[in-house]
Write a structure and sequence with these properties.
With 460 residues, the chain is an alpha/beta fold. The chain contains 16 helices and 16 strands.
């Protein structure tokens, strides 16, 4: 309950009243008896209108109905009490459900509660406080409902309140955030999940414009709903994603009634799901890379070579471009393994693969491990002369490694390279390039190894 200290000085100066009720007859009743007592009365038909009224009107007393459209009386009481200038202003709840539902006046920030009974009885109660306004701060009236003895519970009201309570429990317990907004795009309901998403108390969120909360143009969010209404189509299924306090929310908008005077915003926190999807995509990308990479040498594997050869062959066929291949074989590599062991042999393969890769000069060139001790290089848009020049650079750089290996050719590891080049076409299928490079490699070996030989395919 509000602070009672110095309350006498405040309440004896009652001059202005704000009465909030969605029943026009009740508002006329309040206006009549309050104006008769010499008070200025301003009325509001719902909580949103009441909040707007407070921008230019500072009442000395509030009369608030509990059950109202838009922002209800419970929320309105808390909003009023959260404002600094109304910390001690008396709030009187007017309740039509006092016989059916327990009303915790103090928890709502109100001073007392009056049951909606016959006008004559209500007038007597209200006049009592107008004659003795200090009673508004009587702590013994805190959670009492005045006039309730003249009410009897109504079965239909009990049933409706039970249904409403069940729905409210459901909305309060779901993990999705729910916002209801009125036609001017102001928030009139927010469930606990929505309040958590924005880390905002209800007295701040309720009555705020949705654009202030989301910090986006409301047209972006609501235009699909408006367009759907104009074309008599279903507005559901419209989703946008926004980031709120480092959380990713999936936001959808639906109409809450046939006339679409209000809309419901449904927000789902998809941060973890999105992260899991991103992690899965990243894992799939890594797997895809691993599936294309030779595990030992860290260059492309045979599968990736086959895919890229097919891709480049098709592209260069369309563009009438030239394609070259290099087939590289390590000389006497079986003897190397037999002499130094497979661990040294693996290291030798790694060194040669790295040397080949570092010798390539264009992003479009690609080296792959073709077999045990064979490597293949794809050279798009390359003539035979250029391919042989690169082959000599590769051979020379591998010689410069000076990896020990006593052979009939040299006292270090050497390679032999066969090259092929031509214009892809129906007359020159992909395997023809490989066959011709292999033939050139065979001739180079017959020539004595540690050399390069190239073959040109005829233009189709």
């Amino acid at each position: 309950m509000p602070d009672t200290h110095s309350g006498t000085n405040v309440v004896t100066q009652l001059k202005k009243v704000l009465a909030v009720d969605n029943d026009p007859i009740m508002l006329k009743f309040f206006s009549r008896i309050l104006e008769k007592a010499g008070l200025q009365v301003v009325t509001a038909g719902d909580g949103v209108t009441a909040i707007d009224t407070l921008e230019s009107y500072t009442p000395d007393l509030f009369l608030v109905d509990l059950v109202m459209p838009n922002i209800d009386g419970r929320a309105l009481c808390r909003i009023i009490r959260s404002k600094k200038k109304f910390k001690t202003t008396p709030i009187v709840i007017i309740s039509a459900i006092a016989a059916e539902e327990t009303i915790n006046t103090v928890a709502l920030g109100a001073n007392l509660c009056i049951a909606k009974v016959a006008f004559a009885e209500m007038e007597v109660i209200i006049n009592k406080f107008l004659d003795t306004p200090q009673l508004l701060w009587d702590p013994t009236l805190g959670n009492r409902v005045l006039g309730v003895k003249d009410l009897s519970p109504r079965n239909i009201t009990n049933e409706l309140l039970t249904i409403n309570s069940h729905f409210r429990i459901m909305l309060d317990s779901i993990s999705n955030g729910i916002l209801e907004i009125e036609q001017n795009k102001r928030i009139i309901y927010a469930n606990p999940a929505a309040l958590r998403f924005f880390s905002m108390p209800p007295e701040i969120m309720l009555g705020s414009y949705v654009s202030q909360i989301f910090q986006i143009d409301t047209d972006e969010l609501f235009s699909p709903l408006i367009n759907a209404s104009a074309s008599n189509t279903d507005p559901t299924g419209r989703h946008i994603r926004i980031s709120v306090r480092n959380r990713l929310l999936d936001v959808s908008v639906v109409a809450s009634n046939h006339n679409q005077d209000t809309q419901v915003i449904v927000m789902e926190d998809i941060t973890e799901r999105e992260k899991a999807q991103e992690d899965l995509l990243e894992a799939n990308k890594r797997l895809e890379v691993l599936a294309r990479i030779d595990g030992l040498t860290n260059v492309s594997n045979r599968r990736h070579f086959d895919e890229l050869l097919h891709q480049e062959w098709g592209r260069l066929k369309r563009e009438n471009g030239e394609l070259a291949l290099l087939l590289c074989d390590i000389d006497y590599f079986k003897d190397y393994n037999d002499t130094y062991g497979h661990l040294e042999g693996d290291q030798c393969l790694k060194d040669i693969a790295q040397t080949i890769n570092s010798t390539l000069q264009r992003p479009s060139d690609m080296a792959a491990r073709y077999g045990g001790d064979e490597f293949v290089i794809i050279l798009p848009n390359t003539m035979l002369e250029g391919a042989l020049h690169l082959a000599e650079d590769i051979r020379d750089n591998i010689c410069r490694l000076h990896t020990r290996h006593k052979t009939p050719v040299a006292d270090h590891v050497t390679v032999t390279i066969g090259a092929s080049s031509g214009f892809p076409g129906d007359a020159l299928p992909e395997d023809k390039f490989i066959w011709l490079a292999d033939k050139a490699l065979y001739e180079a070996k017959m020539k004595g190894r540690n050399c390069c030989i190239g073959k040109m395919l005829p233009h189709p």
